[in-house]
Amino acid sequence: MAKNILNELSPLSDRDCFYIVERHKTEFTYPLHQHREFELNFIENGAGVKRIVGDSVETIGDYELVLVGGENLAHVWEQGSCQSKLIREITIQFAPETLPASLLAKNQFASIQKMFVRAQNGLAFPLHTIIKVYSLIDTLSAQQQGFRQVLQILEILYELSLSQEAYTLSSSAFAQITPTADSRRIARVEEYIRTHFEENIRLATLADIAGMTPTAFSRFFSVRAGRSLTDYIIDIRLGVAARQLIDSTKTVAEISFECGFNTLANFNRIFKRKKGVTPTEFREMYRKKKIIC
Fold first, then answer.
1. What is the pLDDT of residues 8-29, one digit of tens each?
2. Would you state the pLDDT for residue 72?
3. What is the pLDDT of residue 225?
4. What is the pLDDT of residues 177-189, one digit of tens each?
């Protein structure tokens, strides 16, 4: 199914730090695509547009701001139920080496570096954060290309990196990213789950790996991972399942059982609740072929 994803060649020049384009449109027609460049995408008057980033499917509001940093993380904004004829879109692209690791390792860039790591899954920003940087984005394309424009983008990235409510979109299992935990106990447990997700994973087994009692471990994991152990395991299984839906020709039932779900009905129900679409609908979204005129 991956052959239906457009490998986009960015217009970004080797001699420029950033590529910026502002579009005024009545509909979204660009197909599902991926590229190596980081992309910050701002949309105004886009209520009803459907956003797909990896295995995340959401309907956006009037204002949208997303940072995509995964080299092979497919994404697209589709028309959905949007009725607006005054859609405004501003896209900023930059190569990963524009801000090299040696620079991101400095204390002053620590928050941006953390944001870039999270952006490998796609990162969506809440409305109050969008409002905070709106004036900077609003005037960006009118700004004369050059040093001051670069400074303005860096200021945008810094302000976004301070957002506490920004949330990741695609699951790490789908994006094929190995998350890094700040706790050795959590890291060992996460590694076990990633390699045994198709099995019946017992709380007692994970607690033993962490060297804790089941009750204490359950509380510890929820605090450190930001979600319950059950939700974490389900998200891993769904991410792998979503990847197989687009990368294989296996039936939905086969994928369901191979990813550790006990019944097909349970898999369909949980997938729809978490992703907003059924497994079959999700597969069809990646199968669609579009013609670029």
1. 888 998 899 999 999 999 999 9
2. 79
3. 81
4. 877 666 788 889 9
Q: Which class for 273: exposed (0-12), middle (13-18), buried (19 or more C-beta within 10 A)?
A: exposed
pTM here is 0.88
How does DSSP assign 18-46, residue by residue?
-EEEEEEESS--PPSEE-SSEEEEEEES-
Residue 241 near residue 260 (C-beta atoms within 8 A): no
Backbone angles phi, psi at 11, to 5 degrees: -70, 0
Residue linked to tokens 């620079």: 103
Question: Across-strand partners of 24?
Answer: 88
Helix/strand/coil for 57:
strand
Neighbouring CB atoms inside 10 A of 251's CB total 11
- Residues of the chain short of pLDDT 70, as ranges, are 1-3, 180-182, 289-293
Q: Quick one: which of 286, 288, 291, 287 has its CA closest to 57?
A: 286
Closest CA to 32 of 77, 91, 85, 82: 77
Cα 156 from Cα 176, distance rounded (Å): 28
Whether 81 contacts 59, CB under 8 Å? yes
Residue 37 to residue 283: CA distance in whole angstroms: 25
The confidence score (pLDDT) of residue 2 equals 52
Beta carbons of 112 and 161 less than 8 angstroms apart: yes
